[in-house]
Amino acid sequence: MVSVSRFGIYYCSISLEKLDPAPSGVGVFELEDGSGEWEVGAYFIEKPDEISLLLLENAFDAGGFIISKIPETDWVAKVKRELSPVEAGRFFVCGKHDLKKTPTERVGLLIEASMAFGTGHHGTTKGCLLALDKILSEVTNLKNVIDIGCGTAVLAMAVAKASSAKIMASDVDPVAVEVALANLKANNLENRIDCIEAMGFEDFRIKSR
Question: pTM above 0.70?
């Protein structure tokens, strides 16, 4: 990581990407101290070549690169330990380690930390769950529900556990669909929800509903 002027940041980041060994990722952001300086950082699997970094420092009149070794961390396990359950209306979203904490009056939704969006901790997901809770209180005869861009399928599962509606969940991302299918199985809902990989409303399986 190194501080660079605004005019040199682009070319410095491009040069970093071309190093051997190459970084797995390069990022830039402006310092918030009002100096007009920018910072460029990179992640390397292998230790970067220090001579190459020194040449970049001189070429772009940059401050000295700071090389730090990042300890290996099982981030999924860390997130599972640190994410607390989410309560949204009647719904209680949690990982397996907190499932026994589900209040008897709540609808438990088992969602593990994963590469798909929708653990309930982001404001948009929690907001959707709260809105869904309100809808389910007012509409008792839901018949056909589609969760477009389902991510973890948390919303589809919430509907399935709180109604008898016919439900489909879809996402354009195959990884999200894989995660969603695993979540359906973990919540014993694989026979209640059809989960597919699809591009929005244009898929014939969605249109045919």
Answer: no
